[in-house]
Amino acid sequence: MPIASEDLDQNGLVIGVSPERFREVAMPLLFDHLNAQCEGTIAVNRQARIVWINDKYAEKVGIHDPRSVLGKEIEEVLPASRLREVVQNGQPSMLDLMAFGDEHFVVTRIPLRDADGTLVGALGFVLFDRARHLQPVMAKYNQLQTQLAATQRELARARRARYTIAGFIGASAAASEVKRQARRAAQLDATVLLRGETGTGKELLAQGIHNLSLRANGPFVAVNVAAIPESLVEAELFGTAPGAFTGADKRARAGKFELADGGTLFLDEIGDLPLPLQAKLLRVLQEQEVEPLGSNQVKALNVRVIAATHVDLEAKVAAGQFREDLYYRLNVLALRLPPLRERREDLPALFEHLLDDIASRSGQSPLELAEDGLQLLQAQPWPGNVRELRNLLERAQMLSDSDPLGADALRTLLVDPQPTSTLDTAPVPAPATGEVRPLADSLAAAERQAILAALAACNGNRTRAAERLGIARASLYNKLQVHGL
User: Fold this and answer.
1) 313-351 per-position pLDDT tens digit
2) CA geometry: angle at 149 spanning 143 and 154, to 5°?
3) pTM, 2 dp
4) Alpha-carbon distance 119 to 137, whole Å?
5) What is the DSSP letter of 317?
6) Which residues contact 307 (CB under 8 A, 6 or more apart)?
7) What single-letter DSSP state applies at residue 261?
């Protein structure tokens, strides 16, 4: 059957042309079309060295003379290129994103073979956003990039310390001294141990130290050791390798040490760290490297540790419940936070600050304290310190109808209110009644009172208290346990 003239074209393609002839004619046409429509084209040989680059691609990546890059390895010119993978495995990469500076190129990579099918190189086309059918992909990618950046910013804010040392309210001698020591500790990069009763503001001061240190722009990660189940403490602190244990994530999970890299890790209630993990923590502190659970590899870190506790670590060391070497490693810079009963003169300023903060969070007007209410609160022992005080004032804000708050309204909110007279009257011995106590009880009471007096005189320092009492430090620890102190 004769072929009509309209079945012929200028390149000689005819209906029913052989595959060989089709490839011979069509492939140059396809290459010319892609080269013209794309943002750039580049070719490499079997050694992933550049053998050709078109002018558009060279101009896009800032190359003035395309011939100057011929013979260079592809990564020297395009660090994120994956053309080497194509010439190594012979598999095309039909659609990918390649970073170059602040831009991302949409690229296609295909292997080049000779007539015998031997792999001789690879060809890369930069499609970028000129290809209209890729615009939805780019829009989705840009949306995800925006969401990722927002999430990263939010995460960074969540791990940023909020408080400063000035946020430790008080101008008493005790408060001023602890703030002075905190500012000194911020200038050093050593481990800090914060000691004090619950609610005295240990995490606030830890954040203040971080914010005043050279690590202020790094993360601040806080973890309460006592709040983590013992079986999970190691994974939480040091991270896990993929599938480290039954039920573990198939991917590696970073621990709190790794999250705090470049910044500060605050370990609250360090006295509750399980004894088997204390050796691993000691190694992390000494070597500045962490080995995730289930991994055989260590990761180098740059983390400052601030630890805190309300328990007597010396007593735990003496009882064999806390490693002595870890105690010395943590106790490099020790700060004792005074309880409220040792700085009662700070209470008026603290009341004002807390009432204003509670009001701003609740959207209500701040309450005022009447003089008798102030005196009543100053007379309380506050075993829970600032945390207990804030709780009381929050309940007063919600429940009290009187403003200013008087002693009668506040007394109903206190569990065991102490009389105001305790502020001005020192405790005196009870008058003799004729009742005779056993000598052992009297001696025990006297010993207990002597220990309390020595501790008070030494600001809680047990070593100095033992010296003042004329007994060994270990004996003092034993007596503290006997008397429930």
Assistant:
1) 999 999 999 999 999 999 999 999 999 988 989 999 999
2) 125
3) 0.59
4) 31
5) H
6) 191, 192, 193, 194, 266, 267, 268, 270, 330
7) T
